[in-house]
Amino acid sequence: MALICSSLLLSAAPIPSSKCHLCTTSSHLITSAVAVLLAGGFVMVPPVADAEEDDHPIRPKFVELEDSGGVKVLDIREGGGTTYPKPGDRVEIHYYARLAAKQGWRFDATYDHKDASGNPEPYVFTIASGTVIAGLDAAVRSMREGGVRRVVIPPSQAYQNTTQGPIPPNFFDRQRLYTTVFNQTRLANGEGSTLGTVIFDVELLKIRPQ
Ligand SMILES: *[C@@H]1O[C@H](CO)[C@@H](O)[C@H](O)[C@H]1NC(C)=O
Ligand SMILES: *[C@@H]1O[C@H](CO)[C@@H](O)[C@H](O)[C@H]1NC(C)=O
């Protein structure tokens, strides 16, 4: 109520008190509310120069990986490990996998893959083996154990056919993923550049050197 009324009170034109029927009848209380809002405003609104600075520390940026065909990454947590995975190494990851299309529909997550004792089962693959989509392979190569990063993978580096992983184990999710990404009608409509874009939130758990 105070917010609605104070915006009326702060506008240039005088507001007939009858229009401010949401306000309390006490003008003293209204004035106090405005004062509080104004004081709050000074505290909360950052100086303009700060807001326009490109390298503002609280506004992290996606970085495009070199020679990756357009894979973009945003590090959410830097890993504490000392090495990066090399071709031939096996890696264990957890991931949330989403489509950029379909309102960011989540088509798979290792946190839902439970082993016999009910613990989430990591996904394991070999770096540079071609068994996973190229964008995921590229992103994990520059991660260290313990790292978490969001990876945005353009269609050319994502699902090209149904042979590369990660393949959602759930039949319906798998079906929907493939019919979306490989929808001939939509590809013919020129939607191919956006349709197959995938977003992975990846946690690198372990590197097992070959
Ligand atoms: C699937 O796509 C990958 C990446 O483009 C390619 O290396 C592989 O040969 C393809 N497999 C088939 C069966 O088309
Ligand atoms: C392919 O896309 C078209 C157009 O959006 C849609 O009508 C059709 O149902 C889709 N096909 C499949 C198999 O999802």
Report on this structure.
The protein has 7 helices and 7 strands. It has helices spanning 2-10, 27-44, 48-52, 134-141, 171-181, 184-188, 192-195; strands at residues 63-64, 72-77, 90-99, 106-109, 123-126, 148-153, 198-208. With 210 residues, the chain is an alpha+beta fold. It has one domain (61-208): Chitinase A, domain 3. Strands 1, 2, 3, 4, 5, 6 and 7 form a 7-stranded antiparallel beta sheet that branches. It is 29% helix and 20% strand. Bound molecules: 2-acetamido-2-deoxy-beta-D-glucopyranose (NAG) (2 copies).
List keywords for this structure.
210 residues; Chitinase A, domain 3; 7 helices; 29% helix; binds 2-acetamido-2-deoxy-beta-D-glucopyranose
